Amino acid sequence: MRFVRFAYEGRVEYGRLEGEDIQPLAGPPGLELRPTGPQVPLGAVQLLAPCEPTKIIALGLNYRDHAAEMRMALPEEPLIFMKPATSVIGPGAPIILPRQSRRVDYEAELAVVIGRVARKVAVDVASDYIWGYTCFNDVTARDLQKKDGQFTRAKSFDTFAPIGPWIETTLPDLATVTVEAYVNGERRQQSHIGNLVFGVPVLVSFISHIMTLLPGDVIATGTPSGVGPLHPGDIVEIRLGGIGSLFNPVINDEDSGNPGPSESGQL
Prior knowledge:
With about 270 residues, the chain is mainly β. It contains five helices and 20 strands.
């Protein structure tokens, strides 16, 4: 089952995707599933980020090949950092290259969306707290990451957390989900979730013992090798097998009119 968040006729709603139509729902799916009106065509709406996280918890060096690519040792336990909610954009919204950076990279990732309040959750029941999965691009100002020696500035610019296009709640086998990145139609990254250093249940449990996870919060599970730079005019696609594809164009800050995510309606 797939859930979306969309703009239609001046309002923002949640909905359940049913073929090429959307059934509007009252409130965020997972909390309230009551239909609120007639179906609307998928082609008539603007898809937004499918959830509204209070926080995004992301993983560093969670693929062995990416750690080797970055010439860094594998962490002994999950290496986490955070991205702000203001960095979120949805499908089709532009990634804005900030003036402060000379190299901004794409990073294809599986995102786990939390469906219930999760605090000190055991590994064996972690899946009970997951609403579903979606595509995520952990956009990173690589030069600033190296300069700062930590991740906050490099990961936190507005538009640096594209999410979407929907939340997939049913997967036959998460370990077989492929993770790919394409830039202008050329494949740049390819792996699958079975190559994670720390799997999804471990991540949910580990993070929930540090901070309370709320419905709609996102865990970005890390990226495989093949990360690389983005340039103005690029179209970047994050493709997850069995889940979907997330497309975003890339523009310079000076060409953006500098709207924040909330102004552009993409949060």
